[in-house]
Amino acid sequence: MRHIRFIMSLALVFGVTLAVQGEEVLRTCVAVLGLAVNESKLEKPVVLTGIVTLFEKPNNASLFIQDFSGGIYVEAKGIPFSGKPGDRVEITGVTAPGNFAPIVILKSYRVLGPGTMPEAVPMTLEELQMGHADSLRVRFKSRVRSVSLGSKQDPVNLPRLVLELGDHQAGLIPAHLLDWKGIEPASLIHAEVEITGVSSGHFNDRRQIVIPRIIVQSCADLQMTENPAPPNVSRY
């Protein structure tokens, strides 16, 4: 009996439910993220309950979920997802390798109601460059070096506003602001800002992070902590 209880406790810790037919159902983000690449290719069943930390409509380009164990990217293309940031949801899907860490391919979901956003983890530039916070809700403070418009994701919404943060010596990191209505982009240049968003990046074929980035839901997640420098700076 003690042996059985020990096995069940391990299953709970690692977010695994032992199914009747021997199929493992992964129930936490860390359980999915802990899979080896070859394991994640097996389309293992996943049922996660967590908070939507970021969602980009209408093309479902970016959907991130976070639970007590970590954060994860959910590929939701082709599924009309009605959840919004801050919602508590249950998602059902299967695993896939992803470009950096294992991800979840969404099959179905339930919105359980409003939830509480997980506290954003303060990060340094070096930590972001290492990819330690991939898919987590993070907070980063830096001066804006430049502002530009990203490629237009769809014919309805504005293109992403891309803020280049950091410095030229230690490195630069782009922050992609999805909803920036009400912001004058040029007013941000050389301002010191604190942003809250989800850590992501561009990765190479060796599953290494090449360019870290932070995806920011809206201008409500951007706070100007110091006014810009005087004029005579280049505009975007």
Describe the structure concisely for a colleague.
With 236 residues, the chain is mainly β. 11% of the residues lie in helices and 46% in strands.
3D structure, described in words:
By secondary structure, the chain is mainly beta. The protein folds into two domains: 2-114, OB fold (Dihydrolipoamide Acetyltransferase, E2P) (Beta Barrel); 121-226, OB fold (Dihydrolipoamide Acetyltransferase, E2P). It has four helices and 14 strands. It has a five-stranded mixed barrel. Strands 9-10-11-13-12 form a five-stranded mixed β-barrel. The radius of gyration is 19 Å and the shape is globular.
CATH architecture of the largest domain: Beta Barrel
CATH fold annotation of the largest domain: OB fold (Dihydrolipoamide Acetyltransferase, E2P)
First-last Cα distance: 67 Å
What string, H for helix and E for strand, traces the elements in order? HEEHHEEEEEEHEEEEEE
C-alpha Rg, in Å?
Answer: 19 Å
What's the number of structural domains? 2
By DSSP, the count of extended strands is 14
Strand % is: over 45%
Shape: globular
Residue share in helices?
10-25%
- What class do helices, strands and sheet pairing give? mainly beta
Please specify the SSE layout and strand pairing:
Elements: H1 2-13, E1 16-18, E2 24-26, H2 29-33, H3 37-40, E3 45-55, E4 63-67, E5 70-75, E6 87-96, E7 103-114, E8 121-122, H4 125-130, E9 137-149, E10 161-167, E11 171-179, E12 192-203, E13 209-218, E14 222-226
Parallel strand pairs: 5-7, 8-9, 11-13
Antiparallel strand pairs: 1-2, 3-4, 3-6, 4-5, 6-7, 9-10, 9-12, 10-11, 12-13, 12-14
